[in-house]
């Protein structure tokens, strides 16, 4: 028995500590492969040097090919927020070293960066043209426009010479590989992040916290974000499949659907086109599926600057769906369960804020109002705009984002 216990202790000493969070912070310096960089990583590297711990990929904190005392120094610098360089894996799986502090950037996903307390007016010296300048008037200057996120003006970015360029990973939303290769070959530091995918949002934002020395701010934002998602998730997972609503998510063009942007499953519903590639759909297929709910994307339409009652444009979209003769006998139309959501609350199309939590909250409320009596998407959106974006915003007076307004049908 003593021998078994001794062997168990030796084995435990040879592996990284258990990671209760279920994910690994992919920053060099996270020697024990958990979700943070702290004193435990210093102790773990000490164990590697003493021969009692196995080496790990991220134990090489300064990424020089060796695990030695210099890595302990680098880890301590990271803990104190004093590192001159930080090496990490981005979402495209690329090893990237950024020189710190970062003072200027080109990119999109501005809402997340502003949520971390970054001074975007000074830091963002170039932005893609899909960034919503209504939401970020400090970035409205056309001189900041570097073109689209999938085919930006490379020469202009090079002239701006930012400390870092943010791109979407190749194959996600846009084919950014040619842009990535051009920028890399010109010596630019490029980071590929999605920043709009629930499954990896914590990992990506936590990395941003380290990159910009905004770890506490990142944690505060993530606690808020996950609170919204988890509240819906916990209730939605208790709904039997046979009682889930069937949903047709229609993009801004009639009879087109992009299930990957609908977040129907995350909202507790069943997407009638789940698993299919985005694009045109057959009206007959919609009729045969007989959805309980129809969601329609409004683009253009709505916006931050609109009077709350100035919703005639998106009201007309709903009326158009309700009047389609081929849908007259569809359950959603017969019951009036047709809802309009503007691009401002989505993760694709111009003006989007790249945060799916608002979309999920509104959809869950529409799908199951009785299951979510305390869920208040309007309050969630208003609180976010006030707390994280610095707006004094009152949805009773300003902003048109959905139709019908909650509580009306």
What does this structure look like?
The structure is a single chain. By secondary structure, the chain is an alpha/beta fold. It has 3 domains: 2-83, no CATH class; 105-213, Nitrogenase molybdenum iron protein domain (Rossmann fold); 240-403, Rossmann fold (3-Layer(aba) Sandwich). It contains 14 helices and 15 strands. It has helices spanning 2-14, 39-50, 69-79, 110-115, 120-123, 154-160, 177-185, 201-211, 215-236, 283-289, 312-322, 331-334, 356-367, 377-387; strands spanning 85-89, 95-99, 105-107, 124-127, 164-167, 190-192, 246-250, 256-257, 270-271, 279-280, 293-298, 303-307, 338-342, 398-400, 402-403. Strands 9-7-11-13-15 form a 5-stranded mixed β-sheet, with helices on both faces. Strands 4-3-5-6 form a 4-stranded parallel β-sheet. Strand 5, helix 7 (177-185) and strand 6 form a beta-alpha-beta unit. It is globular, with a radius of gyration of 24 Å.
Q: Count the beta strands.
A: 15
How is the quaternary structure best described?
single chain
Strand arrangement, major sheet: 9-7-11-13-15
**Contiguous runs where pLDDT drops below 50 for at least 5 residues:** 1-15
Structural class computed from helices and strand pairing: alpha/beta
Beta-strand content estimate: 5-15%
Over all CA atoms, what is the radius of gyration?
Answer: 24 Å
- Look at the structure and give the mean pLDDT: 90
- Number of distinct helices: 14
Which geometry do the CA atoms define? globular
Q: What would you give as the CATH superfamily of the largest domain?
A: Nitrogenase molybdenum iron protein domain
| Major sheet details | 5 strands, mixed
Name the CATH class of the largest domain.
Answer: Alpha Beta
Query: What is the CATH topology classification name of the largest domain?
Result: Rossmann fold
Helix content: 25-40%
CATH architecture of the largest domain: 3-Layer(aba) Sandwich
Head-to-tail CA distance between termini? 69 Å
Instruction: Provide the number of structural domains.
Output: 3
